[in-house]
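RESIDUES AND SHAPES:
===
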Amino acid sequence: MRKFFLTLGFSGLSPIAPGTVGSLVSLILGVFVLIYFDAYTLFLAAALISVVAVKEINKYETITKTHDDKSIVIDELAGMWFALSVAPAMGVAPDEILNLSNGFLIQVILAFAFFRYFDITKPSIIGRIDKQTEGGVGVMGDDIIAGFAAGIATALTWQGILALNIF
């Protein structure tokens, strides 16, 4: 059960780009939460999952003696969900998803792109947390900060798009 949780339904076992696969699965799940609930629910779920994940990662690392195993992608879920909860904090009905003028789909795509960028390049404090923090906090911390940075970058980019009257 721990492996199912940490690998996000075994998506982290993908032989090609497990982090990106985990982020895509997280994006899809997060969009469903945004559509059928709201951004507050997504934010709180990400926070709860993060707390549980830190504990489970610590147990996993004690057993396997491996820090930040590539198959662990629950950190991608937390980061992606924080990015989504910060960026497109609006309600949208399922039949309005493809309506570009409401900005939902564009912000979702931007949040994914920014999150992957920050998660892969690990600029500034994101990289320091990744390299200098041990255990579950280290594994989760860089992705959580990358998620918040991605959400803020998405919100700022969306405001720029609105200022230019593109939509």
Remarks:
- The chain has a mean pLDDT of 93.
- The two ends are 45 Å apart (CA to CA).
- Residues 129 and 142 are 6 Å apart (CA to CA).
